[in-house]
Specification:
Layout: H1 4-77, H2 85-103, E1 112-119, E2 125-133, H3 139-146, E3 151-156, E4 161-167, E5 170-171, E6 177-184, E7 188-190, E8 206-212
Parallel strand pairs: 1-8
Antiparallel strand pairs: 1-2, 3-4, 4-5, 6-7, 6-8
Length: 224
């Protein structure tokens, strides 16, 4: 009669084979599911990357179109009087588009940063620090955007300059006028010898407009 221990060993081995097969089938099933999920994720990732590239292309194209439009609008503002209807339309469009452009979060490296001061001569001072400015703009263009187009100015073709006579609803009078200033750490505030159209804005520039009377020699009777 066979030894019972042999039967026990055989039963144990059979059970072990069955168990191993079940465990193997379980893990194979999990592997197949994981592999399918991986394939799905790869497909979704490829689609997402494609969408990203498309959005990136559209974003870059949008920024380029904005820049072209800015150049055209600034070109219009640079050669007409503020009393012309086209000036009003262009200045409002420029200010509105600039706000939209900044909402797109253009790269900071593509913009300039400057500080501006509006001194209304009655104790009201408005500082606009770290103001984003488009490269190539001069002080006149920057002020138009800063004031949302609320400026009065006469264009003199012979001098290629605007004579600014009003800012933010405050106009020149018989005794009070708008004067512009530049600033540097060495000479502090200076009254430039050229107009706003001839003052390019650089990164870190500091400018001021002050409203005050003038001396008998036609110099401003105030400083920022």
């Amino acid at each position: 009669m066979p030894d019972k221990s042999i039967y026990i060993v055989v039963v144990f081995l059979v059970a072990l084979v069955v168990l191993s097969s079940s465990v193997g089938a379980f893990y194979y099933s999990k592997y197949a599911q994981a592999n399918q999920s991986n394939t799905t994720y790869q497909t979704e990732l490829a689609a997402a990357l494609g969408d990203y590239d498309a959005l990136k292309g559209n974003y870059s194209e949008s920024l380029s179109l904005y820049n072209q439009t800015f150049a055209l609008l600034v070109g219009v503002l640079s050669v007409v009087n503020t009393t012309e209807p086209v000036y009003t339309q262009a200045s409002m469009a420029l200010s509105s588009l600039w706000t939209q452009y900044l909402s797109l979060k253009p790269p900071r490296s593509s913009l300039l940063s400057a500080d501006f001061l509006l001194d209304f001569g009655n104790g009201t001072l408005r500082w606009y620090n770290d103001t984003a400015v488009q490269p190539g703009w001069n002080l006149y263009s920057a002020t138009v955007v800063l004031t949302n187009g609320d400026m009065q100015a006469t264009w003199y073709p012979a001098y290629q300059e605007h004579f600014v006579s009003g800012i933010d609803g405050v106009s020149n009078s018989n005794t009070m006028y708008w004067f512009l200033w530049t600033y540097n750490a060495t000479a502090k505030w200076q009254s430039p010898q050229v107009g706003a159209d001839d003052l390019p804005v650089y990164n870190g520039s500091v400018f001021a407009w002050t409203y005050c009377s003038e001396t008998p020699s036609y110099a401003p009777a105030c400083t920022p």
